[in-house]
Write a structure and sequence with these properties.
alpha/beta, single chain, globular, 4-stranded antiparallel beta sheet, 6-stranded mixed beta sheet, 19 strands, 17 helices
Length: 373
């Protein structure tokens, strides 16, 4: 589907792409990842000729794209960027219809496409088709950006860190939706990110780049089992020392920035936050930011009508670890309790994050326990 052969790109004396060769199969979800400046975005933009290489050939569907009209090529390749790029003076429906209109689709066909795409991401046509981008949340705008890229049913969709500016919860939701869309539509997706968790969640194939070269390419399992060098190991969450693997800590596996509230926050506001975030337990902070305990929805129901602030509701003691504590010990604490998470604290007893059972599932057993697993 997409094939690079000895592609070179320079900016002045700087070598951006250093003789790279690789192939992405039809229907694959390929993720380009690596540190800043590694060449991943440049690689993506050469596929639709937004950037032209100095040397080498790029083939799309067996054709050398240097021999293809760039405009015609781009109409067959969807493109999504972090900045979204929706036309502010166009409605949602008009934004989705941009490429189909240029391809002379009928009005009826465009309307059906718009209906079907909005349904795929649970955005009702009646509720959203006639809204303008300014009336949408960031996550909704990014959904429309993805739908616009899919509107003409292109065989290839390119995505350049499309979720990078979104909050973690919205980002996770959109990642799930993108995986579902890929499975349903069976398009070839090429996605750029610097986040290995995102790459592992999305990819069929990960292409790891550094200094303009492809360091390693393989499935998520292959990358996890046999990272090619220390840089990739660090992206995978492994840290090496001269004597081997350095023990991983709670900080390596915690989810940072959990939902929390100060003691003096109103009960109604707190419950609304919990409802929006779909959580049943809220972390409580003292005025000096230190951890005070947790409040459950059960206790809010029991005591909330008789108090004004969340701090007046009895807190539940929760198992805690510190950021420097051994990860295995934190996981053992989680397994020994009925709780869904362990609260991770900084040295000054402020909240750093939480370790969940999902965190445990992500942990590499051979890294943490070796043969004992």
């Amino acid at each position: 589907m997409i094939r690079f052969e000895n592609v070179v790109k320079k900016y002045g004396d700087a070598l951006i792409l250093d003789d790279i060769t690789f192939e992405i199969e039809e229907g694959e979800f390929a993720v380009l990842i690596g540190p800043s400046g590694c060449g991943k975005t440049t690689t993506l933009k050469t596929i639709n000729r937004l950037i032209e290489p100095e040397k080498g050939c790029i083939f799309v569907e067996g054709k050398d794209i240097s021999q293809t009209n760039p405009v015609a090529l781009r109409r067959k390749i969807g493109y999504v960027i972090q900045e979204i790029g929706l036309f502010p003076n166009m409605t949602v429906a008009q934004n989705i219809a941009v490429v189909p209109k240029r391809l002379k689709y009928s009005k009826e066909k465009i309307e059906k496409i718009t209906h079907d795409l909005l349904d795929m991401v649970d955005m009702s046509y009646v509720d959203y088709a006639h809204k303008y981008p300014s009336e949408l949340s960031g996550g909704q705008q990014q959904r429309i950006g993805v739908l616009r890229a899919l509107a003409a049913s292109p065989p290839i969709v390119l995505m350049d860190e499309p979720f990078g500016a979104l909050d973690p919860m919205t980002r996770s939701t959109l990642q799930d939706e993108l995986v579902r869309l890929h499975k349903k539509l069976k398009k070839t997706f090429v996605f750029v990110t610097h986040d290995m968790d995102e790459a592992l969640k999305l990819a069929d194939k990960i292409i790891f780049m550094d200094e303009g070269k492809i360091v390693q390419m393989g499935s998520p399992d292959e990358m996890l089992e046999n990272p090619a060098n220390d840089l990739i190991k660090s992206f995978m969450g492994k840290r090496l020392s001269d004597n081997g693997v350095v023990p991983l800590t709670a900080a390596d596996f915690m989810k940072p920035h959990p939902v929390s509230a100060y003691k003096n926050q109103g009960v109604l506001k707190s419950t609304q936050i919990m409802a929006r975030r779909d959580i049943d337990t809220l972390l409580i902070k003292n005025d000096d930011e230190t951890y005070a305990g947790t409040v459950t929805i059960r206790n809010i129901r029991r005591f909330g009508k008789h108090v004004n602030t969340i701090g007046e509701i009895p807190v539940t003691s929760h198992v805690t670890s510190y950021v420097t504590d051994d990860a295995v010990e934190s996981f053992d604490k989680l397994l020994d309790t009925d709780s869904d998470f362990v609260v991770v604290l900084n040295k000054n007893d402020t909240i750093a994050g939480i370790v969940t059972k999902t965190s445990m599932a992500r942990a590499m057993a051979d890294t943490l326990w070796g043969d004992e697993s």
